[in-house]
């Protein structure tokens, strides 16, 4: 069985020999602790979803080390000269990645199982299964599969837009509520679509300095109906900036934190430009620590 590859359980002879060095009761106690960790792995392989209780670091490391030992480049006595077998020069880099460095995928299919990397391939499949579980937990009950890829914001959005473009081939436009995030704009262009930039509006409140930047919903409605495009003619690919770029921009009705301010009168009592720049940096760091980013 597959789970037998993960076991570190001593065989009867090993237990007998160990008992000659340490009392058998202590050996058995230690084996029980090891088996409790093995049970976690067995449950993960069987259920293929996020565990109800989080694992401790030791259990996670045990799983990763066991998976890496299943890759051919980590076989004892292996020369590591295969086509996809990893050869890591720096031992620091190897340890940092738990010696998991073998390539995955096969023949252009990143989701395919790599025969020489059983451990890495298994880790990929487990990651995909847990990602699907997270999506379903988030409310996307219709999700049938998931694929975890090491890509950043721009490429992720490009892949999503390309998929939406395939399902709606007549769509050409993406309404983009403008934010200071270049990845969103570049992903639209890379997907072969045309961005319709929607400027944000500055809403001022009586008795308060500055204001708040909000999405122009009226302008969005006008874009949807511009030149008779209508809902069907205009792409429904509305770039959900508030969701996909939450780390760069946040706007919550219950706790609005987006704002505009001028730096013309910032620290007027400080003449030294370097000190003023330092104070401005401190202000930016304070805002970022409170979830406000993209400040200009």
Automatic annotation (TrEMBL):
Gene3D superfamilies: Aspartate Aminotransferase, domain 1 (3.90.1150.10), Type I PLP-dependent aspartate aminotransferase-like (Major domain) (3.40.640.10). SUPFAM superfamilies: PLP-dependent transferases. It comes from the Eukaryota. InterPro entries: PyrdxlP-dep_Trfase (IPR015424), PyrdxlP-dep_Trfase_major (IPR015421), PyrdxlP-dep_Trfase_small (IPR015422), Sec-tRNA_Se_transferase (IPR019872), SepSecS/SepCysS (IPR008829). GO terms for biological process: conversion of seryl-tRNAsec to selenocys-tRNAsec; selenocysteine incorporation. Pfam families: SepSecS. Converts O-phosphoseryl-tRNA(Sec) to selenocysteinyl-tRNA(Sec) required for selenoprotein biosynthesis. PANTHER family: O-PHOSPHOSERYL-TRNA(SEC) SELENIUM TRANSFERASE, SOLUBLE LIVER ANTIGEN/LIVER PANCREAS ANTIGEN. Belongs to the SepSecS family. This is O-phosphoseryl-tRNA(Sec) selenium transferase. It comes from Phytophthora kernoviae.
């Amino acid at each position: 069985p597959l789970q037998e590859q993960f076991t570190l359980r001593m065989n009867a002879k090993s237990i007998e020999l160990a008992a000659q060095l340490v009392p058998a009761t202590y050996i058995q106690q230690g084996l029980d602790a090891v088996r409790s960790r093995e049970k976690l792995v067995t449950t993960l392989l069987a259920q293929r979803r996020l565990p109800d209780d989080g694992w401790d670091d030791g259990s996670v490391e045990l799983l990763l080390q066991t998976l890496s030992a299943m890759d051919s480049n980590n076989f004892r006595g292996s020369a590591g000269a295969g086509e996809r077998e990893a050869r890591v020069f720096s031992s620091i880099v190897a340890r940092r990645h738990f010696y998991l460095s073998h390539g995955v995928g096969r023949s252009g299919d990143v989701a395919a199982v790599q025969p020489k990397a059983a451990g890495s391939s298994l880790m990929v499949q487990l990651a995909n299964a847990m990602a699907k579980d997270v999506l379903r937990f988030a409310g996307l009950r219709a999700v049938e599969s998931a694929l975890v890829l090491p890509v950043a914001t721009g490429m992720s959005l490009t892949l999503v837009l390309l998929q939406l473009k395939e399902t709606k081939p007549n769509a050409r436009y993406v309404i983009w509520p403008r934010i200071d995030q270049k990845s969103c704009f570049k992903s639209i262009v890379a997907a072969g679509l045309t961005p319709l930039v929607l400027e944000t509006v500055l809403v001022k409140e009586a008795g308060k300095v500055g204001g708040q930047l909000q999405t122009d919903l009226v302008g969005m409605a006008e874009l949807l109906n511009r030149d008779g495009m209508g809902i069907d003619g205009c792409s429904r690919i509305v770039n959900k900036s508030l969701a996909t770029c939450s780390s760069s921009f946040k706007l919550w009705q219950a706790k609005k934190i987006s704002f505009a301010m001028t730096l013309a009168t910032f620290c007027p009592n400080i003449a030294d430009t370097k000190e003023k720049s330092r104070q401005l940096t401190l202000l930016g760091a304070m805002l970022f620590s409170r979830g406000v980013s993209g400040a200009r």
